[in-house]
UniProtKB/TrEMBL annotation:
NCBIfam families: PRK06082.1 (NF004755). GO terms for molecular function: N2-acetyl-L-ornithine:2-oxoglutarate 5-aminotransferase activity; pyridoxal phosphate binding. This is Acetylornithine transaminase. It comes from the Bacteria. It comes from Azospirillum lipoferum (strain 4B). Belongs to the class-III pyridoxal-phosphate-dependent aminotransferase family. InterPro entries: Aminotrans_3 (IPR005814), PyrdxlP-dep_Trfase (IPR015424), PyrdxlP-dep_Trfase_major (IPR015421), PyrdxlP-dep_Trfase_small (IPR015422).
């Protein structure tokens, strides 16, 4: 696998791309460069993370700072930093928990883990009687959900979407739809993991054009994406679960009625609906759970990333009543399954999201951001689409003046980075902005101006 692969089409970090050498030579200070070189010499090389782009010594609020003191507003953050970095309330809570109880073997109950489980079942949309399992990361959470779906239905097949990312394990890569995690000598993957084309109204895989002004033209397409999923469920006949991101982290927002139709198709086929909200849940899209505005409840909900407050790795699998059917199986059985430090991080993060109104804040700031981006980029050519949900925003570039959209996206990425904003490229051509929900409006305005200028320079 190449250390310098093609532009990032994954959930992970922005691919370094052909401009990396210029960035390394011209933008990195000596201390940052030295640490990047040490890192590259010690870690196995893999696409998307080694070698690294820079080296940081501090992360606080919306900011990361490199080894030479250069600061960046982090509009990527691997989707963990909803409450910002080093939130003082979380720092204090973890210090106190360290003094009280730092570890619990999984066969022993502890207060923080029980409280977090109770909290999540109380607020989760899976309803009364829900149960929880914790895992050390989102990929493991997806594995638990897949096992539970198999046990509960007696089936093993899944249907998921091409281009989706659900984790890097074999099961999660199998239901995922990105070639980077499914090819290059990695296979064969799990049997029975069927895929269909995703909803993507701005780039419809079925060839339908968006409605004038953007968005889906449902009168024309008649929601072909949802109808195809129903068709596959009916033809397969023995699918255990549909696994999906309710809002795709690209981002793509589902067309109206999409998830309600999928929910009906799952019910008719006897398949469970698993929602992966690992990168998008807990307020990022403007509601506590990203599927809430779309008229469908999952049977199993997987949370992660931000649940650990950008400090500790933590995921949660929440299953509705009636799915507590694996008492004689080991669905997860992870060493840190009931770790009190991890649970305290989850509890405190939930408190901060609630007490600071961060979901509501994301909705308000997201609306302002979309309006402002459209103003700033209005005079610029080569913008295919601007879309988002809450503070998950995408600017899709198009080919222009003989330059490919992917080349323009990479150029814009490095221009923004040089000006102090770290973001992400999704699917090669989408500049994805995902700032902490704690960002001040003035900081957001400044970052958007930097991004618009970077697009203009590209």
């Amino acid at each position: 696998m190449s250390a310098n692969p093609q532009p990032d089409r994954s959930e992970g970090d922005i691919n370094l791309g052909p401009r990396r050498a210029g960035w390394m030579a011209g933008a990195l200070g000596p201390r940052s460069r030295a640490l990047v070189e040490r890192d590259a010499a010690a870690f196995l090389r893999q696409s998307l993370s080694t070698p690294c782009l820079s080296a940081i010594r501090k992360a606080e609020g919306i900011w990361i700072e490199d080894m030479d003191g250069r600061r960046f507003m982090d509009f990527h953050g691997n989707s963990v930093h909803h409450i910002g970095y080093a939130h003082p309330r979380l720092v204090a809570a973890l210090k106190a928990q360290m003094d009280e109880l730092s570890f619990a073997p999984r066969r022993f109950a502890c207060e923080p883990a029980a409280e977090l489980a109770e909290r999540l079942t109380a607020i989760a949309p899976t309803g009364p009687g829900s149960r929880v399992l914790f895992a050390p990361g989102g990929s493991e959470g997806i594995e638990i959900a897949l096992k539970l779906a198999r046990v509960a239905t007696g089936r093993f097949k899944t249907v998921s979407f091409w281009d989706a990312f659900h984790g890097a394990g074999f099961g999660s890569s199998s239901v995922g739809g990105e070639a980077l995690f499914r090819s290059n000598g990695i296979g064969p993957l799990l049997a029975g993991t069927e895929h269909v084309a995703p909803f993507a109204c701005a780039r419809c895989p079925y060839g339908f054009d968006p409605a004038p002004g953007g968005g889906p033209d449902l009168d024309t397409c008649r929601m072909t994406c949802a109808r195809m999923l129903r068709y596959v469920l009916e033809k397969e006949g023995d699918v255990a679960a549909v696994v999906a991101e309710p809002v795709r982290a690209v981002p793509y927002v589902p067309p109206p009625g999409f998830w309600a139709e999928v929910r009906r198709a799952c019910d008719d086929a006897g398949a469970l609906l698993i929602f992966d909200e690992i990168p998008t849940g807990l307020g990022k899209t403007g509601s506590l759970f990203s599927h809430e505005p779309f008229g469908a409840r999952p049977d199993i909900l997987v949370l992660g990333k931000a649940l650990g407050g950008a400090m500790l790795p933590l995921a949660a699998v929440i299953a509705r009543a009636g799915l507590d059917v694996a008492a004689d199986r080991a669905l997860g059985h992870y060493t840190h399954e009931k770790n009190p430090l991890l649970a305290r991080a989850g509890l405190t993060t939930l408190d901060i999201v609630r007490d600071e109104g961060l979901a509501e804040r994301a909705a308000t700031l997201g609306t302002l951001a979309l309006e402002r981006l459209r103003e700033l980029t209005g005079p610029l050519p080569g913008i295919a689409d601007i879309r988002g949900a809450g503070l998950l925003i995408g600017i899709e570039l198009a080919d222009h003046l003989g330059r490919s959209a992917a080349d323009r996206a990479e150029a814009a990425f490095y221009a923004a980075l040089a000006a102090g904003v770290s973001l992400k490229i999704s699917q090669g051509t989408v500049l994805t902005l995902s700032p902490p929900l704690t960002i001040a409006e003035a900081e957001l305005e400044r970052a958007l101006a930097i991004v618009a200028a970077a697009i203009g320079s590209a």
